[in-house]
Specification:
This protein is an all-alpha fold and 143 residues long. It has helices at residues 2-11, 17-49, 51-59, 63-70, 73-90, 96-105, 115-139. It is built from seven helices and no strands.
């Protein structure tokens, strides 16, 4: 939410409100589409890896068992680290003069939003919601 607010403030000087609303709506639709596709692809990969286990849990309507089977802490930690790395890479304040000086002095980089914010958001919100949707999707898989 913080990032979206900062982006809107930066854009508001050059774009009118209608353009910002249209852009935000388009981004939300694209985000929903990508999320649905991601859940579907993850479901297919997971279901194919252990079809008997998933089928038994789905038939038993065992949501907790499905959540346990879906959860891989090591993979989730790797995902959070990748999100933070991408946020650090693409969220830097770009100033060529300061970047040259930072390289020589090994100073900390300046970010628009601290990468840990994205890591925590992904760990606390995105992955749990995705897994909730996957469990619901799986529970209705054999209907």
């Amino acid at each position: 939410m913080l990032y979206a607010h900062e982006a809107c403030v930066a854009c508001s000087t050059s774009l009118n409100v209608a353009t910002l609303i249209d852009s935000a709506a388009l981004c939300k639709l694209q985000s929903v589409h990508v999320s649905v596709l991601s859940v579907h692809l993850q479901h297919c990969l997971l279901f194919r890896a252990k079809p008997e286990e998933y089928t038994a849990l789905i038939k038993a309507k065992d949501a907790a068992g499905l959540m346990d089977l879906l959860t891989d802490v090591k993979v989730e930690q790797n995902v959070v680290e990748r999100v933070k790395l991408k946020a650090a890479t693409f969220g830097q304040e770009i100033d060529p003069a300061a970047a040259q000086q930072q390289r020589h002095q090994h100073e900390h980089r300046t970010y628009k939003v601290q990468p840990d914010v994205f890591g925590r958001m992904y760990d606390d919100i995105v992955m749990p919601l995705t897994k909730d949707v996957q469990v619901e999707y799986l529970l209705h898989r054999l209907d």
